[in-house]
Amino acid sequence: MAHSQGNRSAHEAETGRDLGGGCSSDEALDEGLLHAASHSLDRPLPGLASLESPLETAPRPVGPADSHLSAAPETGASFPDIGTASFPVRRSAPRRLRAFQTGPRIPVLDTTVYPFSAICSLTITAGGDIYSGTGWFISPRTIVTAGHNLFVRSLNPSINGWVQNIRVSPGRNGVSMEPFNFVNVDRRAFICADGWINTGDPSQDYGVIHVPPMFPQVGAFGFSAFPDAGLTGLLAHISGYPANKPAGTQWIDSKPLGRPTPTQLLYNIDTSAGQSGAPIYTVLNGQPIAVGIHTNGVPDTNFGVRINPMVHRNLLTWR
To answer: pLDDT at position 78, please?
Structure first.
């Protein structure tokens, strides 16, 4: 039987308290049964017919009818992915991010449509510098992302450790368009897997951000631990905020997954820096279900953390 590892929030790490995880659903998860998040959408999903083959139809652009949506102050140009600060000390992991050019990412023109509304642009402050990343809601208060977006593993003491601040912008759609507004959170809101904090284990490169429940209209992803056979060849989508595209714009690409390892997903879905933490998801019966968390890649493949039974239990605990 698999066991949950220990995991820490920033506050718990400072006070010496450890967050225990675990549940009694090992047998069901090992059989690959679907356990979607209870906060997955309870309303129809506009545009999901195109998501089954997402390159066929682009969502409508934001227009004058959306002019009532609030916009926050401009956050500036695209910023580098914060993973560049951690990867040099990850001896057993890839040393650089990889952007595949084998298929065209397309822009998400209307980020107010679910599930794109539940994907967040993260503007991260660490060591006095500004970086970027991506996250996604699994409940009204919980956002999943890459662990390296929350805790930097660096030989540089000025940046090593918990990041200072993250500006969370659900469904961001350009430099100054934040249709659901934004929230700033500090390290007291972060939880990260101990395996990432202690050793930089790439299979544990994940965590969550807790925010006030001020975005109920954006929706949330379901998530599931699929068996190997259910993942190999599965059409999957990654949508996030790449740093090599216009600032604050969301882009999506879709391709079949390769054969997974016990802890990671492998794929050649087109991504780039800035999309670290984005959901790797499929669509089942009209519902987007996350099966992994995009983290990085090497020259011949991209990869992310697989939502296996242990990761699934931790996300349920943190949700």
So the answer is: 61
The number of helix segments (H) and strand segments (E) in the chain equals 7, 18
For residue 302, the number of C-alpha atoms closer than 13 Å in the C-beta half-sphere is 31
Positive or negative CA dihedral for 36, 41, 45, 50? negative
Q: Please, which pLDDT band fits residue 10 given cuts at 50, 70 and 90? A: low
Distance separating alpha carbons of residues 99 and 219, to the nearest angstrom: 28
User: What is the DSSP track for 7-25?
Assistant: EEEHHHHHHT--B----S-
The stretch 4-8 carries a mean pLDDT of 49
Where are the alpha helices (H) located in 136-281, listed in sequence order? 194-199, 228-231
d(CA 39, CA 219): 8
Partners of residue 137 on adjacent β-strands: 143
Cite the beta strand spans of 106-219 per DSSP E. 106-107, 119-126, 129-139, 142-145, 151-152, 161-162, 165-170, 183-186, 190-193, 207-210
Q: Is the pLDDT of residue 200 over 50?
A: yes
3-class DSSP assignment, residue 28: helix
Output phi, psi for 131, to 5 deg. -130, 175
Distance CA 186, CA 201 (A): 24
User: What's the CA gap between 243 and 123, in Å, rounded?
Assistant: 11
Q: 57: which residues sit within 8 A by CB, 6+ positions away?
A: 47, 49, 50
Quote the mean pLDDT of the chain: 76
Q: Strands 279-284, 235-240: parallel, antiparallel or unpaired by DSSP?
A: antiparallel
- Rounded to whole angstroms, the Cα distance separating 113 from 96 reads 32
Count of C-beta atoms within a 10 Å radius of residue 216: 12
